[in-house]
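Sat 14:20. Reprocessing the chain from the morning session after the first attempt stalled halfway. Input below, unchanged.
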Amino acid sequence: MIMTDSNTEDLYQDFFNGFNEFDANFTDDADNDEKSTNKIDTDWIDKFFGRRPPEIMRKDITVHLEKSFLEQCKNDDDPFDKFQIDDCNILNQINDRFICEKCHRSRLYYCYTCFELSPELIGKIPEIRLPIKIDIIKHPQELNGKSTSIHSIILSPKDVRIFTYPQMPDDWYDLNKIFLLFPKPGSKTVSDFLHHYYYYNEDDDNNDEQPTKQQQQQQCFRYDKKEFPIERIVVIDSTWQQTKKILRDVRIKQLKTLIIDSEQTLFWRYQHGRPLNHLSTIEAIYYLFKQIHMTLFDMFNNNNNNNKNDNNDHHSDNNHSNNIIDYFRLEYNGQYDNLLYFFKFTFNLIKNRYHL
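Finished this time. Tokens:
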């Protein structure tokens, strides 16, 4: 989208007013909503969309949008058609802000500081149960108002926790079952890790090499003899530059790391020099669960007949582990798609407001 000088200021004013309504008050957690103004503050735009290269003028709002997002906006096709996401129209019907009972600040859909949902939305938006717990470690400079990680705790409050670094969980008891989702050297993909865990040669149980398909056929599929290997997954919510400090923390360094197979982002924020598979936090969490589920479903489905008897014998010995396994034996049918509920709404809000 190319704008002329005649419509730039009007569009900027419209942008500011629109995102003021959309809860884009990014003046720190100590913000005072009574001080909000109609004066155009372009730094707020930077904070929402991400920093742009210094040589690019502020007056073209599209430079704050990710190129892949703009390409998606050119198409009439809805990129979310392939997902099973509940209708977001209820959000368009929310006109009045609410006062958060905890921090007493004015919010629209939810309080991004206290993670409290608007009373008008309670029971009217999806609530998702996740088979694995998620801990999000957020960098203190990552602004709550623009962070997609907040979506996860609003939509899955029983299974997601958010900590602002240096605050950290104090209940990481078994580090062998807690994994960090981060692309470090030596990280295994979710698929590789699960295949190695469940397919192994009884005489070589400590072998870390990923078995080939031919080796898997010669080895034992032993899901019924082991506990489920993942209890909790840790996700870092920060820019790449901010991540370094958190990664140096001794508690984080102890965790084994996992990565997800490449997926293309639909994120709108400008990410200078980052590839299309550089996902937003909520996208990464969504694809993590989807890939875990589809990997395990394929493994259990392909080996179901060979393990029926063993599974029946073992069920009473490890009920919790088998409950999780039984969950993954159901074919994937959009169980986690609603994690993108607010993400989809924001995507379409930006696209429709500016007729991109």
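The chain is about 35% helix and 10% strand.
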